[in-house]
Amino acid sequence: MGNKELEALRAQIDDINEQLLMLIGKRGLISQEIAKAKDMQGLPKFDPVREREMLDKLAAMNEGPFDEATIRHLFKQLFKASLDLQQSDKKKHLLVSRKKQAEDTIVTSKGVSVGGGAHLMVAGPCSVESYEQTRAVGAALKAAGVKVMRGGAFKPRTSPYDFQGLGIDGLKILKEVADEFGLVTISEIVNPAHIEIAQQYIDVIQIGARNMQNFELLKAAGEATIPVLLKRGIAATMDEFLLAAEYIVSRGNGQVMLIERGIRTYEKWTRNTLDISAVPILKQESHLPVLVDVSHSTGRKDIMLPCAKAALAAGADGIMIETHPDPATALSDADQQLTLEQFDSFYAQLKASGLFREA
Ligand code: PEP
Ligand code: MN
């Protein structure tokens, strides 16, 4: 075959490609019309019976040279593309997505805000252990100018023999201290049935890493009238993390903060592996504020400051860190909690770095 013949055949292929493109586009437009009609009638977009009929009909009509399986495969791809086109905006763009909302969500509690430029420091003990311990932290935070105190009352411990937290009594202690010092409080809730009562005592519900995919808890948090701090699961992908947040937002509670707290990898020199790349990815993909927990991610006091700086440099809206009046005697996470003095120094250095912008 000479060059001329080859060129002529290629010209025919180009021509057919153009016709196919035009027909595919036309098919897409009709498919969108069908989607509208289905929406009006409340019918589902995917109709497997209709799809089976179309594939069978095409296979029966096929005269080659492509075999039946190839024809089925090619048309299946076309059907799939049309279905994607038909899927509702809701399914394509999550409520938590930047594509759905371009501007940053600002989460506010008792006049304290995060998101849209203002940075937030969240500090406090791993666990609420007593009124005296919690009050000592509250007083130190107040003196340091920190407005949000964390403290676990329901502790998701690996061993059932370890301190499980003070439960509702712990939440009551948080409230007493918060009222005295004018602080906003965050505490983990592990049981959907506790969401309602928790709102009487705390200002922000934390959903812990181990519960990131506790869907009933997420749904209950979505019904809450106070903000939610959602921790990334121990081995959660970005998709899973964002879909977990979507559970809350889709139930009506848009006041959600995401927090990267390290993921489990083979590395043993840190408690978990701080996935700093999660910060710019989440900021790009979602309008929700993104925080970084430098305590549970690193588990090492000696690198918390540079990790906090890295988090802010990567675009994080806030930092969470654990601090305790006497870490050596702490009932949980004794090794990673800063003394109140160490916290003061940490916070002062972070502010001095110029990376932390106070609200
Ligand atoms: C916590 O912040 O108290 C906690 C238990 O963290 P995580 O859920 O990230 O392990
Ligand atoms: Mn802890």
Write the SSE topology.
Elements: H1 3-41, H2 48-61, H3 68-86, H4 89-92, E1 107-109, E2 112-114, E3 120-124, H5 131-144, E4 148-150, H6 168-181, E5 184-188, H7 195-201, E6 204-207, H8 215-223, E7 228-231, H9 238-250, E8 256-260, H10 278-285, E9 290-293, H11 294-298, H12 304-313, E10 318-322, H13 340-352
Parallel strand pairs: 3-4, 3-10, 4-5, 5-6, 6-7, 7-8, 8-9, 9-10
Antiparallel strand pairs: 1-2
The structure holds phosphoenolpyruvate (PEP) and manganese (II) ion.
Describe this structure in words.
By secondary structure, the protein is α/β, with parallel strands linked by helices. The chain has 2 domains: 90 residues, Chorismate mutase (Chorismate Mutase Domain, subunit A); 246 residues, TIM Barrel. The protein has 13 helices and 10 strands. The strands form 2 sheets. It has an 8-stranded parallel β-barrel, surrounded by 7 helices. It has a two-stranded antiparallel ribbon with strand order 1-2. Strand 8, helix 10 and strand 9 form a beta-alpha-beta unit. The radius of gyration is 27 Å and the shape is elongated. The relative contact order is 0.11. The model has no long low-confidence stretch (mean pLDDT 96). The structure holds phosphoenolpyruvate and manganese (II) ion. The site of manganese (II) ion has 5 residues, from loops.
- What percentage of the residues does DSSP assign to strands (E)? 5-15%
**Average residue-wise pLDDT:** 96
Residue share in helix: 40-55%
- Which molecules are bound in this entry? phosphoenolpyruvate, manganese (II) ion
Helix-strand string: HHHHEEEHEHEHEHEHEHEHHEH
CATH architecture descriptor of the largest domain: Alpha-Beta Barrel
Organism: Paenibacillus contaminans
GO molecular function, one term: chorismate mutase activity
Domain Chorismate mutase: 1-90
InterPro entries: Aldolase_TIM, Chorismate_mutase_GmP-bac, Class-I_DAHP_synthase, CM_dom_sf, CM_II_prokaryot, DAHP1/KDSA, DAHP_syn_2
